[in-house]
Design a protein that fits this description.
heterodimer, A: about 190 residues, mainly alpha, 6 helices, elongated, B: about 100 residues, alpha+beta, Arc Repressor Mutant, subunit A, three-stranded antiparallel sheet, 5 helices, 3 strands
Chain lengths: ~190, ~100
């Protein structure tokens, strides 16, 4: 009996770690995607003559589509793990609605306030992550990781006008750093628990 | 409780090796036959035997993918998730 109990605890620990790892994938995805979009667009612009802005828009749209696909796969796996652990809860429709409304609202506001450009990406994504953290906290009493990522992005937008590198490169580095750090913190916390 | 345990022991996941296969697959989208064999320290014939039983019960799905050479992939089905959840629930209740 003691052996079964110990084995079940080990299974639960392993599954909890896997669940957190699926959560971190979302951050890792964007930590990689932002530099890829910027570099690929710069290369396309240099060799094929495609304008930097058009290729960034096109590749960003592609990255968002791939992200939705990846997120759905991760979400399905997390739900399966929760089912096996006996902790599957029904999803609150208000939570889903709040989550889906965050990005359009925040991006429009950031775009209007900053008149577009790279700074609007930093402010939009930073504020969006903070808004998602508020939604997560309101419904599930969690979301610290999103709050950390959002805060870092907003803090990095402060020296935006003073840095001696191009605005696109600075924005890409800032976003990649924030999302990479988010993934690191989520995984580190999961391994300590 | 005794009835549930008896039912579990007769189900495909009543075998410890098959339960381990399902648990290994639960946290992964899919895995290769070779990875599974190495992780669970099984011979190819032994793993093939258990996978066949699990596949017949609708708990796992196997298929071939093509890269440099054909590779056999294994993944847990939705039915597999349900069966595994039920097996874990029974085991949790026994322990409690």
């Amino acid at each position: 009996m003691e052996e079964i109990s110990e084995a079940l605890r080990a299974v639960e620990r392993e599954l909890n770690l896997a669940k957190k790892a699926y959560g971190a994938i979302i951050y890792l995805y964007w930590a990689v995607a932002f530099p890829v979009i910027y570099l690929a667009s710069s290369i396309l612009s240099a060799y094929i003559g495609v304008s930097l802005n058009s290729s960034i828009i096109l590749l960003s749209a592609l990255a968002i589509v791939l992200f939705i696909f990846e997120q759905q796969k991760a979400f399905k796996k997390v739900r399966e793990i929760e089912t096996a652990l006996g902790r599957k809860t029904s999803l609150n429709p208000l939570y889903l609605l709040a989550q889906s409304l965050v990005w359009p609202i925040v991006i429009v506001i950031a775009g209007v306030l900053t008149k577009g450009g790279w700074l609007s990406s930093l402010l939009g994504i930073g504020s969006g992550m903070l808004a998602l953290a508020v939604v997560d906290y309101a419904f599930h009493r969690e979301g610290w990781d999103r709050a950390v990522v959002g805060t870092i992005i907003l803090l990095l937008s402060v020296p935006y006008h003073r840095v001696p590198i191009t605005k696109g490169a600075y924005t890409t580095l800032s976003l990649s750093l924030a999302f990479g750090l988010g993934a690191y913190l989520v995984l580190r916390k999961a391994m300590r628990e | 409780m005794i009835e549930e345990l008896a039912r579990l022991s007769k189900s495909p996941l009543g075998n410890p090796t098959r339960l381990a296969i399902a648990l290994y697959l639960l946290s992964r989208e899919r895995t290769t036959f070779t990875s599974l064999r190495k992780a669970l320290d099984l011979t190819p014939g032994n793993l093939e035997f258990h996978l066949k039983a699990l596949e017949e019960a609708g708990i796992v799905r196997t298929y071939y993918g093509f890269g440099k050479r054909p590779r056999k992939f294994v993944e847990l089905t939705e039915r597999g998730v349900d069966e595994l959840s039920e097996a874990l629930r029974i085991l949790r209740e026994v322990v409690e």
